[in-house]
Structures are given as C-alpha cells and as structure tokens.
Amino acid sequence: MKRDDPLVKEALGAELGHEARSRSDDHLALKLWLRLLSCTTQIETELRRRLRKRFQITLGQFDYMAQLYRCPDGLAMGDLTRRLMVTGGSVTGTTDDLEVAGIVTRESIPSDRRTWIIRLTEAGKRNFEVMAVEHEQWLLELIGTLDERSAKTLHRELGALRMHLSARDK
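^ thats the sequence. predicted structure below, dont judge the formating
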C-alpha cells in the first residue's frame, strides 16, 4: 500500500493530522510546514485537555496568567492583548472570568481612566506556580523523547527559521 492511496491516507488521517494532506511529490517546504503544524496541534491539544481536566482552565487562561506572572507590576489590558495576540474582547472576557474567580485584580489609572492595569492576586500567583510546574512536566513528557543533541539542533534550526521570517517582515 502507498501513502498516497486515498484509502491509506484516510486511515492515517487521524493519526497524521495535518500531515495527511501531503503527497510524496510535494515540496519539502510544504511537508515541513505540515509536520510542524501537526506537532504543534498535537501538543496544544494535549495541553488543553490536561489543563481543563486538572485545573479546570483553558490554555488561553493559562497563557494569560503566564504573562501576568512574568510582570509582577501588572500589565495594561492593551499590552496583554498584544502579548497574547488576541482581540481586546477576548482579554476583557478572560479578565472578567478570572477576576470573579479571585485570580486577578483590575485597577484603573487615575491619570487615564480608560486604561486598566491587571495583576495576579496572591492566590492567582500560587495557583499559577502549581500549574506551571505541571505544565513543564507535561512538556518534558511530550517532547522529552528527543535526545538532548536533537532537541538543541531542532531549537537552533527553528530559531534560524524565525530570524529569516522576522527579517522578511521588516
């Protein structure tokens, strides 16, 4: 059986995800893109599942908390929007939910009443620290099958690709 056979591709589709779209005669760049996308999707899907099951939060909420954890003085909502690469409405909704849960506080700036500074509460910091330890362990489990040399090579090569892509944006 050949991987390009439609029946074989359909059977492999669930396992291969995005990679199931490629054919043997596709350009290597396309195959690489689909493999990167497949790996990212699989890891993200598993992290989402584990965060929901273990902590009853979304990956978006975890990322939001991570940004605030790195900035103990807090962040303006606009800065959170840029860092998370989401809409202002999404940040507002997440802020509302986490404020009700006692995870974040929202303070206005007296000199600009339109700007809100968001900070993790002490409980929010403690909760995030527990989640971050488990999140790191999950990543080690999911990606840890790579030996150190391979991981360093992949990290270096993906870094070079990012630099190339960033240079094109300028």
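The two ends are 46 Å apart (CA to CA).
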